[in-house]
Amino acid sequence: MKDFWSYDKDDVLKQLNSSEAGLTNKVACDRIANYGKNIFYEKKSTSKFMVFLSQFKSPITMILIFAAVLSIFLNDYSDGVIILVIIFLSSILSYLHESKANDSVKKLLSSVSVKSSVLRDGTFQEMDNANLTIGDIINVKTGDMIPADCLLIEDNSLSTDESSLTGETFPVEKIVGKISAKANLSERKNSLWMGTHVISGSGKAIVVNLAKDSEFGKITSSLSQKDTDTDFEKGIKDFGNLILHVTTVLIGLIFIFNIILNKSFLESFMFALALSVGLTPQMLPAIISVNLSKGAKRMSEQGVIVKKLNSIENFGSMTIMCSDKTGTITKGKVKLDLTLNFNGEKSETLNKFAAINSFFQEGYSNPIDEAILSSSKFDFSSYKKLFEIPYSFENKLLSIMVKSDSDFSNKNLMITKGAFENIVDICSSYEKSDASIGNINEIKSQIFDLFEKFSSQGYRVLGLSYKVLSDDSDFEKEKAEDMIFKGFLLFIDPLKDDVKDVINQMNNLGVSLKMITGDNQEIAKNIGSQIGLNPEKILLGQDLDSYSISQLNKKVLDIDIFAEISPNQKEKIIRAYKEAGEIVGYMGDGINDAPAIKQADVGISVNTAADTAKDAASIVLLQNSLKVLLSGIKEGRRTFINTLKYIFVATSANFGNMFSMAGASLFLKFLPLLPKQILLTNLFTDFPSLQIASDSVDEDWLKTPVKWDMKFIKKFMIVFGITSSLFDYITFLVLMVIFKADEKFFQTGWMLESVISAMVVMLIVRTARPVIKSKPSKNLIISIVLVSLCLISIIYSPINSYLGLIALPLKAFISMLCISIIYALVAEILKKKFYKHNSFSREKL
Q1: Rounded to whole angstroms, how far apart are CA atoms 178 and 199?
Q2: Closest by alpha carbon to 542, among 183, 191, 216?
Q3: For residue 469, what is the enclosing H or E element?
Q4: Partner of 537 for a Cys bridge, out of 28, 435, 493, 560, CB 3.0 to 4.6 A?
């Protein structure tokens, strides 16, 4: 039943064909057969084998598998096996991190009470929640979990904890009555919500919506949906498609040219297949896996557990960080912030009176009294409790009568605290600053102005009053009337200690924080302004529903604060930011945050969060501090940039070689390189690339978000690929004109120049800064030196003949080195100009 809270209880009973006498067992059984049981329907889980197979769905992975098969077909078993092993190990690593069954729904189910008290055939009986149905009447009491969405039809001082759904820290008082259909979830005080629990009191309610249709059910439904691809995953797919298109076109052209030139069909085919292996960046899966694994390890040392590896690089791309308020921006714990007299001045005696009231009350434990007592250090051993008038949800007052100590002349005091308006109603006078007494009417407008002011500042405001009782008073007959207004009790959910500093640093890193909360707009505005958000850039839940997702995409870009938001609206906000082109992180700790956490590119939770939130998250913070987010952002950028470094190196070099191969095959009577020489060249150039995963990253590249930019990658590939090819043609000219090279001489000389150039240029393109100002990692330097020495050793050793190589004359060797050095100098100059006009980093926000 939609908007049931906006109907009178009699109308609801009529529409559901029920009554306050409940259902008969026969009618209930018929309804269960019709509507189904009060349970969630879990989707059939994907088998572990299928989860494993899904790791190979990326275009780049499929290209590499094809390349590996071709290598084996070319009798180069070692290279083929190496590629397959790399792919397999990368997929295993990804599978182990990401294939754990998502048991969020099960966590939700286990958090709900098993049995409820249900009115059937005229009597209340304990019954399994699964057997509840629409129209059932249930009884609830302190400690009970609510088994379905219900409308309250009777209440007796009923109060519930709805923090798991709304994020509201304070208990919610429940009343019978009608509420506006447009009221947000936290304002529907006549409704009971599945998954929340009763703090105090009791009540009777009618079941309106069963599990799968409840607010709780909407969350489970969104959690059971398949994960959407994150920005990083989309980028990998786009890059794979780019390589696939380039490979197909170039290989086809080269094969056709060789056939036109009447070269051997089989030899041309084998050459084209070898080139297809050469163009693919074989080490990309390994680079990504090593990058992410090392990043995850470094983050774990800082108290951050990475559940989904790709989320690390999404961290680096993140431009928007959305956060729940309660428990993430704030501490999620009620605190007594101020005790003020009628004039808004601090009052220590008011603080003590409040502590007396909370210390001696014997009702249910609640956050308000806990906050009062935690802020006081008074000794009440000399006080004697005389009587208590328990808290009533009708008058919203709690009164304690005590025999005071010598500080208050051993008087009998009646101290009453409660809702501000109710306290004012029972007061006939007020205590002035000099402790004299005045008429309450003198200051009513003043204290109500202060109440509005404090409320607008985000405070939960209670009032406190007292009166002196004579020794012969009948305490049991005393009433809360003719009281003396003592002052205001101001409660807050305080900000986390480091939140302001973290938000400032995030802004400096180009990441904008957006606050999403179920709290009312006044509290949201106040908290937002405290942490540097613009309180005027606010969107309310009731207004958000009026926007389509395409309209919301544009609207959210100019919003800082989202208030009075439902759980499913949080998810809609995240979708809107993503579709607007932003890379979005979301941090929350409640059940109500789980859908948004799962929808985000980077879903973050804390170790103290609800199990559901932690299960939906890709990153869990073990420390209750937001500072680790900053290290996570930098770590994400470091791993992303090192991945891009490999792509820059591999695509530019491979594209250049392919272009050179295409040209050389037109005028040479022999193949520029034999298939096995191509594969060996790839092996030599790829080995140092593995060390890029641990390479240092320039600080300038860590200052702003980075993301996939296919246009940039294409430009880089073309500019540096053509430059590489230009020096290849210079090499061809030197070998053919100066040294009159034959087939083996040519192939050896070009292979030497190609590998040495790749090693030197790898040092250059790994940074946007001058190479001498950016220190590479020790492992990268060692690997480059080892590969260079290994190649030279092979050329000048007896095994060269097995690879179709020869020992080059010294002049030819020096010539190849000189070409490589000149190429490096030109690449350094070209790099400076290229980065002056192009950047893969987003501009600072």
Answers
A1: 22
A2: 183
A3: strand 460-469
A4: 560
Whole-number Cα distances in Å, 245 to 238, 278, 418, 660, 673: 11, 15, 71, 18, 23
CA angle 513, 518, 523 (to 5 degrees): 75
Residue 165, helix vs strand vs coil:
helix
Q: Which two tokens stand for residue 797?
A: 């050793």
Residues 6+ positions from 354 with CB-CB distance below 8 Å? 336, 339, 372, 376, 415, 417, 464, 489
For residues 576 and 843, what is the distance between their CA atoms, to the nearest angstrom? Answer: 21
Q: Using CA atoms, how far apart are residues 175 and 830, in angstroms rounded to an integer?
A: 73
Contact 326, 608 (CB under 8 A): no
For residue 78, give the H/E element and its range. Answer: helix 77-98
Distance CA 315, CA 585 (A): 8
Over residues 304-357, the pLDDT tens digits come to 778 777 778 788 889 999 988 877 788 878 899 999 999 999 999 999 999 999
pLDDT tens-digit readout, 323-332: 888 777 888 7
H/E element, 207: strand 197-209
Q: Shortest CA distance to 403 belongs to which of 394, 412, 391?
A: 412
H/E run at residue 550 = helix 549-555
Q: What is the mean pLDDT of the chain?
A: 82
Query: Which residues, in sequence order, are bridge partners of residue 495?
Result: 330
Beta strands in 643-761 (DSSP E): none
Torsion of CA 84, 89, 90, 95, to 10 degrees: 120
Task: Count other C-beta atoms under 10 Å from residue 512's C-beta.
Answer: 17
Which residues, at least 6 apart from 547, have a Cβ–Cβ distance to it below 8 Å? Answer: 555
Cβ-contact 524, 517 below 8 angstroms: yes
Sign of torsion over alpha carbons 116, 120, 125, 126: negative
Whether residue 814 contacts residue 808, with contact meaning beta carbons closer than 8 Å, is answered with: no
Cβ burial, residue 325 (10 Å; 0-12/13-18/19+): buried
Identify residue 845 by its one-letter amino acid code: L
Q: Looking at 28-32, 90-94, 126-130, 231-235, which range is the least confident one?
A: 90-94
Question: Which residues are registered as beta bridge partners of 400?
Answer: 388, 415
Measured between alpha carbons, how far is residue 809 from residues 81, 128, 404, 557 in Å?
35, 89, 106, 65
- For 400, the 3-state DSSP assignment is strand
Return d(Cα 595, Cα 599) in angstroms, integer.
6
Mean pLDDT of 37-50: 65
- Report yes or no: 530 and 337 within 8 Å, Cβ to Cβ: no
Sequence letter at residue 604: I
Q: Tell me the C-alpha distance between 9 and 176, whole Å.
A: 8
Kindly report whether the global pTM for this prediction surpasses the value 0.90.
no
Give the residue among 189, 1, 191, 76 at the shortest CA–CA distance from 681: 76
Strand partners, 515: 323, 561
Cβ neighbourhood burial of 92 (10 Å; 0-12, 13-18, 19+): middle
- Cβ atoms of 59 and 241 within 8 Å: the answer is yes
Contact criterion met (CB below 8 Å) for 591 and 219: yes
Question: CA-CA distance, 312 to 307, in Å (whole number)?
Answer: 10
CA distances from 779 to 81, 263, 672, 824 (A): 25, 43, 32, 21
Give the Cα separation of 147 and 149 in Å (integer).
Answer: 7
* 817: Cα within 13 Å, side-chain hemisphere: 10
DSSP assignment, residue 17? T
Residue with tokens 């969060």, as numbered in its chain: 609
